[in-house]
Amino acid sequence: MKKIAILGYGTVGSGVAEVIDTNRTQIEALLGEPIEIKYILDLRDFPGDRYESAVVKDFSVIVNDPEVYLVAETMGGSHPAYDFSLSALKAGKSVVTSNKEVVAKFGKQLLAAAKEHGVRYLFEASVGGGIPIIRPMIDSLAGNRICSVTGILNGTTNYILGEMANGKDFASALSEAQQKGFAEKDPTADVDGVDAKRKICILAAIAFGKIYSEEDVNSVGIREIDLTDTEILRGIGAKIKLIGWVRREENGLSMGVAPCVAPSGHPLYSVDGVYNGILVRANALGDVMFYGSGAGKLPTASAVVSDIMEVFANPEKPQALQFLPGQKNDLCDPDAIPGNYYLRTQLTTDSLDCKEIAPGAYIVHGVSRARLVSAFPDAVIYQVL
Hints:
CATH superfamily of the largest domain: NAD(P)-binding Rossmann-like Domain
Helix content: 25-40%
Number of domains: 3
Distance between the termini: 50 Å
CATH architecture of the largest domain: 3-Layer(aba) Sandwich
Number of helices: 13
Largest sheet: 10 strands, mixed
Radius of gyration: 22 Å
Number of strands: 18
CATH topology of the largest domain: Rossmann fold
Mean pLDDT: 97
Low-confidence stretches: none
Structural class: alpha/beta
């Protein structure tokens, strides 16, 4: 019998238990033996819950129990989630997690600890909710050289921007997202791009082998988006999306998070609501798109359970994935790279290769953002995908 512990019995942790219980027959048939949730770590009590008797408040009970083969960390935040994960790995227990903050900040250390102690550290649920993306990039695209990863990585902001595209202002769209449970009471990490930045750091590490500090990656959120621009863009069949990207350039990696314009022909244009979409470009395969529920109790829990099953199904498989530390000077300035941009300005644009799409609004071709900012200090500027 495989015995596990779940750290945190909130939305994702309770979802992990629910997925295991709902699909137990199928899961156990694939594993060839029963699976038991022996412990749940939480400071709260859950009277009447099916797992009431499994709840413990002391992590040492879990880490010191040799019957616990695997720990599913679904706590959120850096500490004590990182500390508990590291302790579990050192105790010879594999760890799976949905915690993008811990993976982005401490993934290098935790992967190294897993390798040293002969166990696994997996984090499929840390990016894209229930979308399979981490393992396909590692395994299915192993024969490719990845060129870029571009994605809508935050369902909250995608929902808000969708409502703004239909004429609601930011405050109203955010309030509606909070009422529907799509946005937290404190939405800062979502609307300021922090959540998406952590996820693109993880995806960059998978694609290019180095984990970069989130402090070294620029992120721009969605608070300042003006309905004037969403209306103009809707008129030409385009939408503003919060995009995280990492791509190879001639002089390094370009990486960041910012609102961008998705034209109607772009694969990310049709990713609406709280869904995520991740576009991976590889030198042999070309473009491949991953799409699905980017958050939520059961979608995220399903990714955690898939990692649990991977560990159990391949108990002798070594922890091969490791992250090297990325250096800030590996990253080039994305604002210096020529591209296509949406520009709204009151100044003359005679010096630019551009097309006017509305009075004072243009699609500009083949220039850098830095040049546009210097020449048009009054302007609203968004890169066009």
